[in-house]
Write a structure and sequence with these properties.
Layout (H helix, E strand, L loop, with lengths): L4 H4 L12 E5 L4 H12 L3 E6 L2 H14 L5 E5 L7 H10 L6 E4 L15 H29 L3 E5 L12 H20 L6 E7 L6 H5 L4 H7 L8 H13 L8 E4 L4 E3 L2 E2 L4
Parallel strand pairs: 1-2, 1-4, 2-3, 4-5, 5-6, 6-7
Antiparallel strand pairs: 8-9
The chain binds NADP nicotinamide-adenine-dinucleotide phosphate.
The site of NADP nicotinamide-adenine-dinucleotide phosphate (NAP) has 30 residues, from helix 2 and helix 7.
Length: about 270
C-alpha cells in the first residue's frame, strides 16, 4: 500500500535555505537582483556578481541593513572575459561556502537577421550567455561534488525552447544553456547536486532596452498593450526550485506572461 505522505509529514520536508551560501551572476539589476533579494529574505548569504560595482555596493548596503544576519559579498567581474585561472580562484575569494549557484547574467543585442547581424555583438552574447554559465559551473560544481551538496540554477529563457525571427544568436545561446543544463544533470546524477533551469517569457527589466541599444520607443512598443511578468515572478520560481525536498530535482520551469502563448505571440489588448 502506498504511504500516505500527508499523515507521515514527509510531504513537508522542504529544503531549508537559512544560513546557506549562494552566488548570483548578473546581480546588479533585473531578475538577478530580485533573486538576491528573495535569497537574503530567506536568510541566505549571497556573493553578488556583475560589472557595475556601484549597483552591487548599493544592494549590499540595503540588504545587510534589512537582514543583519546575512552577508552580501560583492564581486565585480565580467563573466564573458574572466580567464580560466581567475575563474577557478573565485570560490576561495568568497567568504562563505557556495552551495547555490545561480547563473543569471545574460543579454541579447539587436534583432538583426543572420545575413546582416554584427559578429562582435554575437561574440559578446555567446561569451556572456554560454561561456559565463560554463565557466561558473566549472568553478563551483567541483566543490559541490566533493561536498555532495549543491544546486545549480541556470536562467535560460523561452528562447531556449523556441526560435523566432530576429532571435538567431540569442535563441542559439539559450538553446545551448538548455542543453548544457540537461548534460550537467547527467554528469552530476551520481551526486546529490541538483541542476535546474528557469525559462521565462516576457519579463520587463532593462533586458529589452539593452537589446534595442537604448531605443526607448522600440522598448515601449514591445511591451505595448499587455502585462509582462516582473523580475520578482522569476525570483519566486528560483526559490521554488531551491526549496523542494532533496528527493526532488526541478528540471525546468517554463513561464509566459498571461497574454503570451509563445515567445513572439502576444495578445495586445489596445
Ligand atoms: N527580461 C526578459 O524578458 C527575460 C526573459 C527570459 C530570460 N531572461 C534572462 O534573464 C537573465 C537576466 O536578464 P534580465 O532580464 O534581468 O536583464 P537585465 O535587467 O538587463 O540584467 C542583466 C544582468 O546581467 C548582468 N550582466 C550582463 N552582462 C554581464 C557580464 N558580461 N558580466 C557580468 N554581468 C553581466 C548585468 O549587470 P552589469 O551590466 O552590471 O554587468 C545585469 O545585472 C538573462 O540571462 C536573460 O537572458 C530575461
Amino acid at each position: 500500500m502506498a504511504t500516505n505522505l500527508r499523515t507521515t509529514g514527509e510531504r513537508h520536508q522542504f529544503c531549508s535555505l537559512q544560513g546557506r551560501g549562494a552566488l548570483v551572476t548578473g546581480a546588479s539589476g533585473g531578475i538577478g537582483l530580485a533573486i538576491v533579494e528573495r535569497l537574503a529574505e530567506c536568510g541566505v548569504n549571497v556573493c553578488i556578481v556583475a560589472r557595475r560595482v556601484e549597483k552591487l555596493n548599493e544592494l549590499k548596503e540595503k540588504l545587510e541593513t534589512e537582514y543583519p544576519d546575512v552577508t552580501i559579498f560583492p564581486l565585480q567581474l565580467d563573466v564573458s572575459k574572466t580567464s580560466e585561472e581567475e575563474m577557478l580562484k573565485i570560490p576561495e575569494k568568497v567568504p562563505f561556502q557556495v552551495d547555490i549557484l545561480v547563473n543569471n547574467a545574460g543579454l541579447a543585442l539587436g534583432t538583426e537577421a543572420v545575413d546582416t547581424n554584427s559578429i562582435s555583438d554575437a561574440m559578446t552574447v555567446v561569451n556572456t550567455n554560454i561561456m559565463g554559465v560554463v565557466a561558473f559551473t566549472r568553478a563551483f560544481a567541483s566543490g559541490m561534488r566533493e561536498r555532495d551538496r549543491g544546486h545549480i540554477v541556470n536562467i535560460s529563457s523561452i528562447a531556449g525552447h523556441e526560435a523566432y525571427i530576429g532571435g538567431s544568436i540569442y535563441c542559439a545561446t539559450k538553446h545551448a544553456v538548455d542543453a548544457f543544463t540537461r548534460s550537467a544533470r547527467h554528469d552530476l546524477r551520481n551526486s546529490k547536486v541538483r541542476v535546474s533551469s528557469v525559462s521565462p517569457g516576457a519579463v520587463r527589466t532593462d533586458f529589452t532596452m539593452t537589446r534595442f541599444k537604448g531605443d526607448v520607443d522600440a522598448e515601449a512598443a514591445l511591451y505595448r498593450g499587455f502585462d509582462p511578468m516582473i523580475a520578482e515572478d522569476v525570483a519566486d520560481q528560483v526559490i521554488y526550485a531551491l526549496s523542494r525536498p532533496m528527493r526532488t530535482q526541478v528540471c525546468d520551469i517554463i513561464s509566459l506572461a498571461n497574454a503570451q502563448s509563445a515567445a513572439r505571440d502576444i495578445h495586445r489588448g489596445d
